[in-house]
C-alpha cells in the first residue's frame, strides 16, 4: 500500500506531511522510556512484514499489521509506523520521501483507531476476544485502503481505476490480517498479558 514518489499531487503530499508531523509529535510525547524496546521490536516486525510483497495482477500486496501495532503499542503505533516507513523508503525504495507523510497517515491513523477500538470494546463487550481481535486486525487495513484510494483520487482523475483495484485487492489481505491478529493476540495474552495493560 506504499505510494511512491511523484504520484500524489503537491497539495496532497504537503498537507499529508503536515498532518503526519503533527500526529507524530503528539503521539511521541506519550511514549515512556521503558516502552522503547517493545516499540523497537514491533517497528522491526512492521518493517519486515511490509517489505515482503506478493504479486497480485498488475500490482503487489503485502501484510500491513497496522491493526496489530495499534493493539500492542497504542499511541506509539504511529511513530513506529513512521520510522518503519522511513527506513523502507531509504533502504528499499518502498514508498518514497515525498510521499512519506501520506503513507504514514494512510497506515498510522487506522492503527490509532485500532488502539482506541480495542481498549474501548475489548474489556467491556460481551463479544469474544477473538471477534474483537479479528475486527481490530481487519478493519484498519480496509480504512488504510480507503485513505490510499482517496489520496490517489484527490491527486487526479487518472487514478480512479487504480483506486478501485486497490480496494478489491486488499479485501483478502484484511481477512488474513484479521486472522493473524486473532492468533497473535491470543498467544500474547497467554505469555505476556502485561503488554495489554
Kindly give the count of domains: 1
What's the assembly state of these chains? single chain
| Main beta-sheet strand count, sense and barrel state | 2 strands, antiparallel
Indicate the structural class: mainly alpha
Topology summary:
Layout: H1 10-28, H2 36-49, E1 54-56, E2 59-61, H3 66-73, H4 77-92, H5 100-121, H6 129-155, H7 160-191
Antiparallel strand pairs: 1-2
Characterization of this structure:
The chain is mainly alpha-helical. It has a single domain, classed as Arp2/3 complex 21 kDa subunit ARPC3, CATH 1.10.1760. The chain has seven helices and two strands. It has a two-stranded antiparallel sheet. A hairpin with a 2-residue loop joins strand 1 and strand 2. The longest helix has 32 residues, at 160-191. It is globular, with a radius of gyration of 16 Å. The two termini are 31 Å apart. 42% of the residues are buried. The mean pLDDT is 87.
Summarize the structure.
With about 200 residues, this protein is mostly helical. It has 7 helices and 2 strands.
